[in-house]
Amino acid sequence: MSDTKVMKDLEQAFEAIRSKIPFTPKVGVILGSGLGLLADRLNIEAKIPYSEIPGFPVSTVSGHAGQFLFAHTEGGTPVVLMQGRVHYYEGYNMQQVVMPLRLMKMMGIETVYLSNAAGGANRSFVPGDLMIITDHIASFVPSPLNGPNSEELGVRFPDMTAVYDQHLRKVAKELAEEMNVNLKEGVYIQLPGPQYETPAEIRMVMALGADAVGMSTACEAIAARHMGLRVFGISLITNLASGLGNGTLSHEEVKECADRAGEVFSRLILGMLERDE
Ligand code: HPA
C-alpha cells in the first residue's frame, strides 16, 4: 500500500470496480468532445459509469457522458474507452483530472490514445481537419504531478523529450494516406479555459509555436508518460482559433463540427487499433 493520497484514492477506486472489469485492456482511448461515435462502432461488452466509482470526478459539461466502456476490436485488441473526461476548468485539481487515466493503467493498459476538440491556431488548418499531436505546451496549467510523487506510478522528474510515440504517429500517417485523409501535424497547447481565448492570446500562442489550442490532453499526456505509457494524441480542429476566422466561438459550433468529423476520426482510430504493433 502506498502512503500518498493519490495512490490511496486510486487503490480505493480500483477495488470498488475490480469485479466489474471484464478483461485486461491493452489500449485506453479517451474520447474528446463529440467524438463518442467511435463507441458506436464497437461491440461494447461492459460499461462502468463514473458515478459508481468512489472518489471519481464526474463531468459537468454537456456532450461528455461519463463512463468506461470495454470492447474488443474486430481483430481482437482489448480496449477500454473513456466516454467523457473531466477538465481542470470544472473545478477539479489536476490530480483528479488524471485519475481516470491512472485507473486505466491499473486496469492494465500499455498505450493510451488521447483525443480532443481544439481550435486551429495554424493558418493552414480548416475546421474538420484532424491533427496528430507531435508535442505539447503545458506551461500555462498546473502539472498533474504536483505534490508528493507516487513512486509506484513513476519517477519524480520524468523525461518529456518524446511524449507522443513516433511509431504510432507513423501508423496514423500511413492509414490516413490509404484513407485519403489529409492529416495535419502540430503542437497542442493546453490553456485553462473555460472561456475561449482572445485574439491577443491566440497571437501569443502562435508566437510560441502552437498549432492547436484546447483545454485538456497535455496534462493527461504528462501523467501517461510519468507511468511509462505509450501515448498517441489527436486533435479534431473544430474551429479556427479566436481572431483567425470571421465569427465568434461557441460550444455548439465545436460540437457540430465534431459530429460531422466523427466518422473519419472513428475509422482512423479503429484502423490504428488493428494495425499497431
Ligand atoms: N479554444 C480552446 N479550446 C477549444 C477550442 C478553441 O478554440 N475549440 C475547441 N476547443
Can you walk through the features of this model?
The structure is a single chain. The chain is of the alpha/beta class. It has one domain: 3-Layer(aba) Sandwich (Rossmann fold). The chain has eight helices and nine strands. It has helices at residues 5-17, 37-40, 94-97, 99-107, 166-178, 199-207, 218-226, 251-275, and strands at residues 27-31, 43-49, 67-72, 78-83, 111-120, 130-137, 183-190, 212-214, 230-240. Strands 5-8-7-6-9 form a five-stranded mixed beta barrel. Helix 1 (5-17) packs across helix 4 and helix 5 (166-178) crosses helix 8 (251-275). The protein is globular. The model has no long low-confidence stretch (mean pLDDT 91). Bound molecules: hypoxanthine. Hypoxanthine is lined by residues 117-119, 196-197, 213-215, 238-239, 241, 249, 254.
Labels describing this entry:
single chain; 277 residues; alpha/beta; Rossmann fold; five-stranded mixed beta barrel; 31% helix; globular; binds hypoxanthine
In short:
The chain contains 8 helices and 9 strands.
In the sheet with the most strands, the strands line up as: 5-8-7-6-9
Kindly report the CATH topology.
Rossmann fold
User: How far is the N terminus from the C terminus?
Assistant: 33 Å
- The oligomeric state of the chains shown is single chain
| Main structural class | alpha/beta
